[in-house]
């Protein structure tokens, strides 16, 4: 923030404050002692002068006494009145500045779009601005004197997960989100962030709580997530439809071509060996075309995933990948209740994630030779991991890796399932992709 150059009035005011500091550099006891000494010396001088001057005129004595009285009063003016006057002016200036700062602070706090609350160490609300009252549909002054947990969480006592309680306990900022209902019944989502106010001994004396209305952003995120889920679901349905069409229509046509070509080859006379050779070659091409169509159909939506489940589909995909990528040594492990069928969305998400993880290893895992894929199915959770021994990534790059298009799509697939995806890169090298998905027992049975 740019600072303004000092103005003349400020300089004058500063001069007054400087004089006040100079005059008041002595303690009141020292000033009183100097004043009494000055009066004593002036009285002694008065007696000496009257005794030395052989003047008996009352008028002269009165003039001498008046002059000495001025001398006596001068230190009172210099040492007491002027410092008091300068101090009073400086105090008036400070009070005016404080009033001005308080007015600006109050104007800022009251007109900001964030709710601000000052909370004492015993969770008592000391101050709340209008935005905070508006967020929680409370009348003016309804916050002050109440406990923060009763206002914001509707509880009878402080909860350990309350951000205010956490800040008072740890002395660090904390945040949480909560939902409340407006007066019209609509939903409001508020993010509460608390900041500590430290005492001189370093303890947390008070807490400043800032409330932000994030309803629109959360609803927008929810809408985007819903649209992404619909897009993924539509994509999977389209994959399934296209795979079925390829298998049914193209497979039937290719089989008919194969049969017709074999019949044509048998009907050609033996002396036309060249034509028989061409028919045999074309028959081979048709067979290769059929194999390619079946391969594409399986990659689009493997029927083994729908018929036999996730473990069988993963084993088949790993075997196909190992056949195509002979430079990798792949170890697949399945543990737990792998024979139990999982929800359709979970099986599809983990299968697609395995595909994406293996593709990323081929593209980005420099020097990787060994890959370990592990599937663990427990009663309430599915654990899935893909680990390679490649060059690995730095921690900062590991955090950025989740922002790629492929892994971002995997996160979107896992989000509606409540799943969590993390990328770990140990110091000794390699990269591990870990997935944890909770299971709903009702959905898990087919």
How many beta-strand runs?
10
Structural class from helices and strands?
alpha+beta
CATH H-level superfamily title of the largest domain: Histidine kinase-like ATPase, C-terminal domain
Could you give the order of the helices and strands? HHHEEHHHEEEHHHHEHEEHHEEH
Largest sheet report: 5 strands, antiparallel
Mean pLDDT: 76
| CATH class label of the largest domain | Alpha Beta
- Give the overall shape, derived from the CA principal axes: rod-shaped
Q: How are strands sequenced across the largest beta sheet? A: 2-1-5-4-3
Portion of residues in helices? 55-70%
Could you tell me the strand content as a percent range? 15-25%
Looking at the overall shape, the CATH architecture of the largest domain is: 2-Layer Sandwich
Write down the domain tally: 4
Amino- and carboxy-terminal Cα gap: 65 Å
Helical run tally? 14
Q: Which value, in Å, is the CA radius of gyration?
A: 44 Å
Low-confidence stretches: 1-21, 395-405, 441-446
Write down the CATH topology of the largest domain: Heat Shock Protein 90
Q: What does this molecule look like?
A:
With 446 residues, this protein is an alpha+beta fold. It folds into 4 domains: 8-110; 115-213, 2-Layer Sandwich (Beta-Lactamase); 219-300; 309-444, Histidine kinase-like ATPase, C-terminal domain (Heat Shock Protein 90), CATH 3.30.565. Helices cover 58% and strands 17% of the residues. The strands form 2 sheets. Strands 2-1-5-4-3 form a 5-stranded antiparallel β-sheet, sandwiched between helices. Helix 10 (310-324) runs parallel beside helix 11. It is rod-shaped and about 170 Å long. Mean pLDDT is 76; it is low at 1-21, 395-405 and 441-446.
């Amino acid at each position: 923030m740019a600072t303004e150059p000092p103005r003349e009035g400020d300089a004058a005011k500063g001069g007054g404050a400087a004089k006040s500091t100079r005059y008041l550099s002595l303690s009141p006891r020292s000033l009183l002692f100097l004043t009494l000494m000055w009066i004593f010396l002036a009285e002694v001088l008065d007696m000496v002068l009257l005794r030395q001057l052989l003047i008996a005129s009352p008028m002269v004595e009165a003039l001498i006494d008046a002059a000495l009285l001025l001398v006596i009063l001068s230190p009172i003016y210099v040492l007491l009145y002027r410092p008091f006057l300068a101090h009073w002016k400086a105090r008036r200036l400070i009070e005016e500045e404080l009033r001005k700062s308080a007015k600006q602070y109050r104007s800022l706090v009251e007109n900001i779009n964030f709710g601000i609350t000052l909370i004492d160490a015993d969770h008592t609300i000391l101050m709340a601005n209008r935005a905070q009252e508006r967020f929680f549909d409370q009348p003016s002054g309804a916050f002050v004197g109440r406990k923060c947990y009763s206002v914001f969480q509707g509880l009878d006592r402080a909860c350990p997960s309350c951000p205010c309680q956490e800040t008072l306990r740890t002395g660090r900022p904390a945040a949480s989100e909560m939902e409340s209902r407006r007066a019209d019944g609509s939903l409001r989502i508020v993010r509460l962030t608390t900041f500590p106010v430290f005492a001189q001994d370093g303890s947390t004396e008070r807490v400043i709580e800032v409330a932000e209305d994030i309803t629109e952003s959360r609803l927008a995120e929810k809408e985007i997530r819903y649209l992404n889920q619909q897009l993924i679901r539509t994509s999977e349905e389209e994959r399934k439809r296209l795979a079925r069409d390829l298998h049914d229509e193209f497979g039937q046509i290719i089989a008919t071509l194969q049969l017709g070509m074999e019949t044509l080859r048998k009907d050609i006379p033996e002396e036309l060996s060249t034509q028989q050779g061409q028919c045999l070659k074309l028959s081979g091409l048709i067979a290769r075309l059929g194999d390619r169509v079946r391969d594409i159909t399986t990659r689009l939506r493997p029927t083994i995933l729908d018929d036999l489940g996730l473990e069988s589909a993963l084993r088949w995909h790993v075997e196909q990948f190992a056949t195509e990528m002979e430079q990798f040594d792949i170890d697949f492990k399945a543990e737990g209740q792998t024979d139990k069928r999982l929800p359709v969305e979970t099986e599809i998400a983990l299968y697609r994630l395995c595909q994406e993880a293996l593709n990323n290893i081929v593209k980005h895992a420099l020097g990787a030779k060994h890959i370990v894929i592990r599937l663990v199915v427990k009663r309430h959770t599915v654990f899935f991991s893909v680990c390679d021994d490649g060059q690995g990534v730095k921690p900062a790059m590991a955090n950025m890796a989740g922002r790629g298009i492929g892994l971002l799509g995997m996160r979107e697939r896992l989000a509606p399932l409540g799943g969590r995806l993390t990328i770990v890169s140990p110091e000794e090298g390699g990269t591990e992709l870990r997935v944890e998905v909770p299971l709903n027992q009702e959905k898990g049975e087919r």
